[in-house]
Amino acid sequence: MPSLDLTPGSAAAPSPRSPIPFVRSSRWADLAFSAAIRTCAFSLFAIVLLLVAVLFANASLSLHSFGWSFLSRSSWDPVARSFGSLPFLFGTLLSSLLALLIAVPVSLGVAVFVLDICPAPFRTFVAYLTELLAAIPSIVYGLWGLFVLVPLMRRFAGPALVRAFGWTDLFREPNFGMSLLTASFILAIMIVPIIASVSRDLMRAVPGDQREAVLALGATRWEALRLGVLRNARLGILGTVLLGLGRALGETMAVTMVIGNHPEISANLLAPSYTLASVLANEFAEAIGHLYLSSLVEIGLILLLISVLVNGLARALVWAATRRGDGLQRRAS
Amino acid sequence: MVPSVPEPGSTPDTQAPDIQVERLNAWYGSAHTLRDVTLHIPARQATALIGPSGCGKSTFVRCLNRMHETGAGTRVEGSVRLGGLDIYAAAQAADIRRRVGMVFQRPNPFPTMSVYDNVASGLRLNGVRRKRLLDEVVEHSLRQAALWDEVKDSLRTRSGANLSLGQQQRLCIARALAVEPEVLLLDEPASALDPISTSKIEDLIYELKTRYTIVLVTHNMQQAARVAERTGFFLDGALVEFDETKRIFTNPRDRLTEDYITGRFG
Amino acid sequence: MNGRATGISRARRFTDHIATAVAVGRTALVLVPLLLVLGYMLGKGATSLNAAFFLHSPLPPGETGGGMAPAIGGSVLLLIVASAMGVPLGLGAGIYLAEHGRGTRTAHAVRFTADVLNGIPSIVIGIVLYLVLVLRQHHFSAFAGSVALAMIMVPIITRTTEEMLLTVPDALRDAALGLGIPPWRTVLAIVLRTAAPGIVTGCMLAFARIAGETAPLLFTAFGNQFGSADPREPVAALPLQIFTYALSPYDDWHRQAWAGALVLLLLIAASVTTMRLFSGRGLRGFGADGPS
Asked: How much is the ipTM here?
């Protein structure tokens, strides 16, 4: 510390020194920074546009050759140069919907439990666990599916289902373990953490007074939850379910490793199937011929459009449910 | 342009300017929060602004150093002359804010910085690097804010957020003084503090007003009476009355002012 | 809750208990299998991991031993190059959302785009980079893989950065601007610095996520049996190698696939844990929690 001729405490003592050499503020630094930040933000638009444009351009051959019939044709024959995406659409949609069917009730139960019933220390643990599970890579789930779930399905679950429900067309032999149902199971495991954590946040976003109001009327806990929370979070929960659907539709590695990869439309859930994403993973690198490649690109395009649609809708719903005027919130007094 | 306008960075001792506000209007989104305010804030005195909450007094001081425009959807019209310099027409907002320092309602030290770094931040982030100068300014500012003796032993080890609320507010005053402003805007600086800290802040204002032009927003009328030479009364975004403090509190001209200071509303 | 005093009917109380039991039951139903999955992965990986895994190169198919050293090196290379592109872009976009564009329509559009991009299947991104880069340069390359990974990173980092910046109280922005600090320096030196721990862990989470991405690398980085540090060459990557080994008929390769999975899991666990530590702490006690 330099010694100053100041008596301690004498606040009024003037500063004996020359003016502080401030740098004059330059407009340019702020403008440049703002421009740089804006460029980064707009690069997100650019990336999405690039994805769409490149896929459209490279799918043009297939788009021209097959038109809308690409969506309804069920043959996938590189040798005969005949391509249609129906089996993949079927496999993708069915496996994802089945996964939702399994995952939604389960994850809403988890969300309610974590939010309302669970003791506090355990709550943190469950929240941590869901976050961890949501972050595990697809390939690791695939590995587990391939070496644990597939044998389980082949040896136990599959035969049991055939015995119990064999009279329907849904569960029939042969059962190799790799099937649409196996894929649905693994997808369900993968989307439970997402649906559970987002819907928990949504339910938490419901103002506490809504619940208290219902409780104050003498309702039980379940009634409070149903009337005060679930009803208010309805829209958002629908959004969350769509978010899970979006993830399931595009899931690639795990599904590719357990679904059997066979482009066939069958009501038998134990039969192998194929999805949009897995046909890309398996065939894209070795596609020979312009039409084959272009057809695969069109499959990518379909996958992109579906996921943009589903995710866009999901986000819109989740936002609508959580929006609490995040715009003009600075002080006004 | 008036030739006697001090350049930024000159010593404040003798040259603190007055502020002439003319027909100042401010909007916050579509809310017209300040209506046609005209007043003259004299140099090297304390001027108090009173009024019920939401009356526009905070918006008013935020217009004096161009802080109002940092909010989204805000707009200002009219003129504010700092010793003759129209702050909205001329310079960069940052240069104005350096000359017109501000202390906020709640103490807001930078939590990641030590006491020393907090006080030095305004200089460092404006390009001042010389260590000797920084040391000097930090000590001088902390002494002016009557905080030096309490923190001198832990200047660099203690976080700014680690002080008591009253100390934090004096730290914020020291931080504002460090850039050597000419005007000091105090937006309810003691409203979050206990009575002892409050009286320390008031003593401080009393001393500082000999060298700085001070504008003090307060909802505490006794505080205004204790430290300010002049007082303005705001209501619904308009300046109802502006006069010598004594006059405002003993013999107000306006009925509304009288109602307010006698506690009939607000 | 006292049923008798409040006069809640027995039926309603019964329903309440049932609903509670169902929620607890469902949770157990979910948590137990999920824990089993996690435990199985950890156990299987732990028994498979050894020093050779990190140090050695793969052996020819069918031979026992060897490791994934080139794949780990390749993943590191991919991550570094991807971060060099993805982190600055994501940071910038996040700053835009939280600071310059806060509350504006453009910011909403950008945020929406980030969320949509985050939902686009990564394999689609891989295809596009194959078409744009690989096809044009006539060979697979680590660079193409890195660009794909960067595109996956950008929206994640954007959103975490925004979220973390929004936890910084406006009072600090006011304090800095009020000192005459120019806005750009206020953002970088005050706001970003205050939020830095959270942002850094957010970036770590993004690294961990893209470290496990497989699909976008299939047609870009492609894989390479040998080590390569040249971004213009194809490189091996940990998840690609796991995929190849998992589908192979060799037991020892299966073992190595599990070891690789464990490495990815640990990476994820580490980043999720640090993330929670930081986001849980917040800025309490700094006396600057916004307007009153």
From this structure: 0.87
